Structures are given as structure tokens and as C-alpha cells.
Fold this sequence. Notes:
The complex is a heterodimer of chains A (97) and B (419).
Chain A: E1 2-5, E2 9-12, E3 17-21, H1 34-42, E4 50-56, E5 64-70, E6 76-81, H2 82-85, H3 89-94
Antiparallel strand pairs in A: 1-2, 3-4, 4-5, 5-6
Chain B: H1 6-14, E1 32-38, H2 42-55, E2 60-63, E3 79-80, H3 87-101, H4 103-107, E4 118-122, H5 125-140, E5 146-148, H6 150-156, E6 172-176, E7 180-181, H7 184-197, E8 201-203, E9 208-214, E10 217-223, E11 226-235, H8 241-247, E12 255-267, E13 275-278, E14 283-287, E15 292-303, H9 311-324, E16 333-344, E17 350-353, E18 359-363, H10 369-386, H11 400-403
Parallel strand pairs in B: 1-2, 1-11, 2-8, 4-13, 11-18
Antiparallel strand pairs in B: 3-7, 4-6, 5-6, 9-10, 10-11, 12-15, 12-16, 13-14, 14-15, 17-18
Amino acid sequence: MLITCPYCGPRDVVEFTYQGDGNRERPQPASQDLDAWNAYVYDRLNPAGDHNEIWQHSGGCRAHLRVVRNTLTHEILSTAFARGGHKSAGHKAGGNQ
Amino acid sequence: MAEYSAFSLLKNALNGNKDWKPAWRKPDPKASYDVIVIGGGGHGLSTAYYLAKEHGITNVAVLEKGWLGSGNVGRNTTAVRSNYLLPQNTRFYEHSMKLWENLSHDLNYNVMFSQRGCLNLAHTPAQLDDYARRGNAMRHLGVDAELMTVNQIKRLVPALDVSGSARFPVLGGLMQPRAGTARHDAVAWGYARGADRRGVDIIENCEVTGFLRDGDQVIGVTTTRGDIRARKVALAVAGSTGHVMQLAGISHMPIESHVLQAFVSESLKPIVDTVLTFGMGHFYISQSDKGGLVYGGDLDGYNSYAQRGSLPIVDEVMSEMLALFPGLARVRMLRSWGGLCDMTMDGSPIITTGPLPGMYLNCGWCYGGFKATPASGWCFAWTIAKDEPHEFNAPFTLDRFYRGLIIDDKGQGANPRLH
């Protein structure tokens, strides 16, 4: 499986570390909404088909990537930097982008 | 349908094997059943068998999307063991072990259960201490466990490199002598025959495409062979749990589906007379009765519904095998294949009523579904029949994650690919 890193170009999957479901939204750090925290920690989308996920190019530029991949065929449909497209409420509130 | 016996063998041998009957019927689905079990693998078939045998519920259909036993029950490495640390797991898997020990008699079907033992190798003093602790925990609950020295291990598995110059020298190991292997296809066929002869309809090539609902209540399924109604619908679809639950409108579960590869080598003379696991990586090996080495390692590491793996794991598994057995460097690999594992967030299974009314859920077997097959079906049948869990599966709820009652034998947290 080849993943095209936006910095480095197409690289073998062994250079990457899988970080899981990219649809999860981390609650605000101060949030006391237990349902939201439980959903963030434990729940996964797990589709049979196109899956929006996070990978890190840990053996290369170390950037975190947002990858859309088909879980039935292992076809990579798109890759982009995770930052920017990331839906983390915590990041927005921190203002440290 | 005749019992298998020495007499029936002799009789059929003398008349040219003409009187053998099919082991199970091929019925068309009825319009409704008391219980529908989705999934004709080991767990679904054993559930149907124990529903009929233990609870007298025989108006049951097992729906299988392909042919019987075409999923994970034929894709594992056949190891059976109950060497767990946490009491919830130990009790459950030991119950399974006791069912295994009588399974061939119970089913009147030879599942070739072979108690050749399971030995976990330790390569650091800390790991050996950890195994001692686990062995003590097992013995407290009445499960057999023995610490083995390097010399004992050398005598048991002469081909193993136990020298000080090994890449990861062996310091000892934890042996469960009653563990072993079973013939996985025979387990599926035996349970299928046992369920069928008690009246269960096993319906192959019948894929579930949706659920019939009355409000929240599940009242049946839609399939490629028409609608089928049932008072109770039970899921035992292992790696496809996420997909099937989405058909029921539940998109988020504490589960990820991953592919796990397994391998078999060309046939050799007997060299590994036990199930052996490597403590410094993730590798396990046994030898089949035909002589092939059966072995596997880690998951590929990312979500997958493809029943095939990728080459990096092949490379890793082979290198781990050679770290243990340098003498196998020129043995050829015959086949590799992939099975789907529904990995939960704590590495323990889910056997529960719900999550929708009228639905029953059996999933989350991670790597280890095969050894659980008898107890899984036994506990699931109890849960379906009585609408409450048996004490053996009471801890394996779906909501344990949200109630802080996770059963995390490996201590890997909510990180399914590490279990």
C-alpha cells in the first residue's frame, strides 16, 4: 500500500503509523460532558467502504495526515495534512494554530 | 441421521460408502422463526446448537451469507487456551476449555481436539515475573499453569534456539498443559450437524441486507432470500459487526475491524509439539496434524474488511519465526490468508442483550474467537433464551466502556490495534 504524503510524495505504508478513525471530535479539555468524552475515547465509525482516518508519516516528515481509504479494497482516495481540515474543537479554542 | 460410530464406519466401508447422508439439510427459509442467528461461523452455529440442546429452542434459523464456515472459523490458527490474567476472562475461557474437552463426544463428531499445551516464552526477567503472576492467578481459579525452565523448554521443543546467542534469549516460559488445538472446520461442521439434527434450519447463501423494525423493536431481517421474521434476532458476525450494525442504524460502536493474517508452511516431520508464543514480538506457532507449521503475528494495523493482508506483516512474521527457529530459514511458506477481527477497545468480547430491543449481540472477539467458540455459543444461547446473561458472560456488556468496567487483560487501553 502506497500513501502519498503531501510533503514527501508516495511512500510505502511501513513509513506510516495508523492513528485511527478521523471522524472523532475531541471535547473541550474542560468539558464535563461524559457522553462526549466516552464517545471520543471508545466509539468508532468502522465503515465497510470509504473511511476518513488519521495517519502519521512517522518514518518521514512526521506530519499527521488525513487519509480517505477504502477498507474493502485498501485504495487510497485522498491524502491531506490533518491540520486545517481537523475538526478539533480544542484546537480552535486554544488559538495556537 | 445416523450416529457416527465404529459400526457405521464398518457398514459403510463394506457397501462402498453409499449410505452416508449429508451432515445438514439445505432448507429454504420459513416466513418466521423464534430466533434468527445471523452468521454461520463457529459462534453462530454453537449458539444455535446450545439453544436447541440446553434450552429446547429449536425453531431457529442460522443465516450465512456465504457457505457454512467460510468466515473466520476457517481462517484462524486453531489454538485453544484459557491462560488469562483477569478473573472475568479466566472463568469464561476455562468454561470454554471444559466444553472443548468433551466436545467430540457431545457432538458425536471428531473435532480432533489435541491438548498439546500452550507455552508462552519469556525473554526478560520482568516478563518471567509477569508470567509467574499470571500462572498464579490462573491456578487460584483452578486452571492449570506451570512455569518452565530453559532446560525443560529445550527438551520440549528441540528446534527452538534457546542459546545465549539467540537474538532474544529464552529465560523460561509459562505452560498451560491442557491448552492445545482443534480442527477448525470440524468444529463448524460438528456444530452444524448437531444443530441441524435438533431441528435448526441452516440457511446458506442468505445475506442479511437490513432489519425489520416495529418502532425500536427488531422483528426480523431482510435478506437476499426474502424477509424473515423472528421474535429474537441474534448477531454473531465477528469481523462484520460494524457493517451489520450499520444496517440496524447503529453507526458508532466500541469496535474496529482489522485483518489478521495467518500462514502455513509445507509439511515437515513433527518439530513443534505444542502451541508456542514468542514473548518479544507477536508470533505464535503450532504444527498441524498434516505436518504444516501454522503461524501468525500482528494485525496489519489499520481498519480493514478485506480478507487478505499486506506484505509488511508477512516480512515481520517470517523474521520473528526465524528469531525463534533459525533452522526453518529454508522452509517454504505454502499459503497465507486473512481473517477479520472485530477489535474492541479493551480486548475483551461483548455478549449481551440489545442494544436494540429484540436484538442480541455477540462480537468483539479480537484475535481470540476460536478458543471461545463453545463458551461463546453456550453463554449467548443462555442470554437469548433467558433475556439475561449467565454469570460467565455478565461482565462482557456493551456499556462496560461507558461505566468504567473495562476488562483489559493486556493493559493497552482504548487502542484496539494493540490488543
